[in-house]
Amino acid sequence: MFILQGEELNSNGELYIQRYPKLELNLVDGSSLVVAVVLNNIPKGTTQVLLRGNLSKVAYAIANTLCERDIKVATLYKDEYEKLKLRLTSKSTSNLILSTSYARKTWLVGDGWNEDEQLNAPEGTLFIPFSQFPLKKMRKDCFYHSTPAMVTPKSFTNMHSCENWLSRRVMSAWRIAGILHALEGWNVHECGDKMFNIEEIWRASLRHGFRPLAIPA
């Protein structure tokens, strides 16, 4: 049995592990697949992104992976910059930028930011959320990606959508992660600070018939 847990409620399930060390099930918060989906949603050839929102487990993982791939990650506030710098590997810190500009045209956005900041984005900016809830769309001249999600396999029957803002036959990455752990027989927790291998869970999602959502045109 697998349970998806929220960071804000119980530290991504870590409290359950501490309270019930002999728990006979695995807790899966889905962070690794969320990160994988967000990374895949970034258009090929992107060299810089702006990171906005609370610095969650997912945000740190996204920033670290992008910096390791030589993609510049910009943040607007010194405290966020310092926190991110502490979590990055030594070889990737040079790709972290403390910026005074909103000029990047790819924004990765989570919870806890002022959505009015969208008004400062350049025309044609792509907003990619890593939050569970969708952004309020404030710009008609920009593009908005879905929350982290994938199209379900054709073998899934009687499938509508798992969230009312997602299209038919689309499931959130958090839920898919639990399914994948069960299908693959991964007998490990993904909770607290633990994160499953991003590349491995992405390959597993494709192998089991899940497909990425199209980037909005």
UniProtKB/TrEMBL annotation:
<dbReference type="Pfam" id="PF12076">
    <property type="entry name" value="CER1-like_C"/>
</dbReference>
<dbReference type="InterPro" id="IPR021940">
    <property type="entry name" value="CER1-like_C"/>
</dbReference>
<dbReference type="GO" id="GO:0016020">
    <property type="term" value="C:membrane"/>
</dbReference>
<feature type="domain" description="Very-long-chain aldehyde decarbonylase CER1-like C-terminal">
    <location>
        <begin position="49"/>
        <end position="212"/>
    </location>
</feature>
<protein>
    <recommendedName>
        <fullName>Very-long-chain aldehyde decarbonylase CER1-like C-terminal domain-containing protein</fullName>
    </recommendedName>
</protein>
